[in-house]
Predict the 3D structure of the following.
Amino acid sequence: GQQLNQSPQSMFIQEGEDVSMNCTSSSIFNTWLWYKQDPGEGPVLLIALYKAGELTSNGRLTAQFGITRKDSFLNISASIPSDVGIYFCAGQYAGNNRKLIWGLGTSLAVNP
Amino acid sequence: GEEVAQTPKHLVRGEGQKAKLYCAPIKGHSYVFWYQQVLKNEFKFLISFQNENVFDETGMPKERFSAKCLPNSPCSLEIQATKLEDSAVYFCASSQSQGARYGYTFGSGTRLTVV
């Protein structure tokens, strides 16, 4: 099935460091969503982006909807151990079908 | 309630057996989605409903998979004659009528193991 290109695939960082991950697509999206998934749980929405160029923050998290509408990034500042998990980007096309197209995730490990 | 409730949490089936998974969406959410997450974290869209009507079933392997969302009942996803490749975590998500405007709320998933 169709997927987004999400990178990096995994990251291992020290507590307190900043983190950046991104997603790119060959297609234009109407909406970009960033989710975090903990082991044994479903994805939890972190940030939703609806307009090209939009920059949105949620605490230490910041995400942007790329101007071309084909990419998005997520930054985490001053990482803490509970940031550990898998982060997914997901996009939705304009139109009416509402299904999400997913990246394969960025696995984040934080060394205390 | 304010969470998407999926049951059971774990399900083990012998190859060829039937599997049935349930999802209670958040009250007031009009859309329900089923996704399959396989080993490499890939989320595959299966089917979506708008209330009790199938909205998009382009991801469903129709020969063995079926799904329903009936009024006043949990939604269900049924797999007839399971195969080893059906082993995955199946997630249900629901959203308000504006689609992704407020994101989708996911349940905790049902881990299906076919042996």
